[in-house]
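Aim 2 progress update. The chain analyzed this quarter is reproduced below.
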Amino acid sequence: MTQAKNKSAVRQKQREGYGSWHRRSFLRAFAAAGVVTAWPILERQKAWAQEIEDRQDPLYHRLGTGSSGGVYFPIGALIAGAISNPPGARPCEKGGSCGVPGLIAAAQTTEGSVDNLKQIRNGTLESGLIQADIALEAYQGEAAFKDLWVPGLRALAALHPEALQVLVPRDSAIDTLEQLKGKRIGLGAKKSGTLVGSRLILEALGLSLDDIQPFYMAPVDAAQAFMADELDAMIFFGGYPADLIVSLAQTVDIRLLSLPEPVAAHIRGAHPSFLPQTIAAETYYGVEEISTLGVKALWVVHADMDDDLVYDMVQALWHPTVRSMLDAGHALGQFLRPETALIGVTLPLHPGALRYYRRRGLTLD
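Predicted structure tokens:
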């Protein structure tokens, strides 16, 4: 009885701040995002299951992603759909949803990794998608994140690979990264992982912001400026193929620039979480193969999230019935697999996630 009361207290605390007005606003945002709530869980501890069955009010979960033109938003929407199971939905064993019973999750657009990190720390997001390198530096309180130290950051899963992608017009005279000096460059929004990656490239090149014409723009705005010939180059840090760049390559002729080995070695030396990656030819229409660097995207929460809830969320994501949804939902969905969910993780796992993976015989290196 005491355990059940404690769990109820945790759930009630998580609901604080959700007044009736906020609940209506959340549901409007949820509907606008087009998140499909499907996929529940078959196995739970009996006490936890009974508590869920008795719950009258839904438990809301805000999952921070990125801009609507990037990869994080569609991937976040898939995860939100996988873990959601609103009150009144048919149970999993009867062909209904296989998410966490009583949970309504919605993918929310944000400015990207750094913004998600800040909002998780501040409690305005329950979880988020964050680049593995940024997550590690924020967890450790590295110099760039000394004012955004989040020692309570915990991982639930590594998702898909992300890569540094530098775009120029096909007919541009820019053939190497060194030729970016003095040029108009879209560096990403100010709270994005793309901006972090852009600064790494500039630093490795020995360039400062004074050596270029910087533009701080979200990917959609940068793509529009690129098409209007208002940018000489555009940097994007994210999964590939990114829907925005796919559309851009079908509209205008583009090239991607490879990272030369000295630049790549400099970045790897300062940030060991980066690994070599190859973007194959025709990943984007008409674009040749290039060599670059990248990291994994992580699904993260704060350490104070309830262990059983986290366990159920992770179990819901990897439920067998979700496989077809992940594969069909996005080109990067194929990379979301439990057997690779611990490869590239740069944070401690949340205890609830750790319990799940251990029960599946999976361990973090």
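The first strand starts at residue 59 and ends at 64. The chain is about 35% helix and 20% strand. These observations will guide the mutagenesis experiments scheduled for the next reporting period.
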